[in-house]
Sequence to fold (150 residues):
Amino acid sequence: MLQILQEAGIAALFIAIPFYLALSYWCFKDARHRSYKVSFQFFSVILTLLIPFFGVFIYLLIRPTFFLEDQENANLLRKAFSEDEPEKVLRDCPSCSRPIEVDFVLCPHCLTFFARRCKRCQHTVRLGWALCPYCGEPQGLQKSDLKVVD
Ligand SMILES: [Zn+2]
Ligand SMILES: [Zn+2]
Fold:
């Protein structure tokens, strides 16, 4: 009986030791993907070697959330998007003089309407204008109301 227990214990060790070493190695590999700091990579190995099995759980709790590659991709995307964003051209609201974007149709500060969108080309057209200066679309006027110069 004792011998069977001993053999079972030895067999368990033969399974457990490689698993323990493999876990430690996995943590090292994972740490390399998540941090440039050699100290952190070293720490992950020491942690998992010193605290068998539970060290891995501790590592999982304290490791950086994202892979370095993902962080770099996210940074690149963020940079690309911020560069693509056109610079906003500002002007003063004709009513309250606070700065607003050039193609706003109303002032968000004083709620004054001073323009609308052309139905055809979507450019900003001032309220008093009869025609869209970009595409010639009449703005709320009949074509017969317009003077045509030959
Ligand atoms: Zn205003
Ligand atoms: Zn238009």
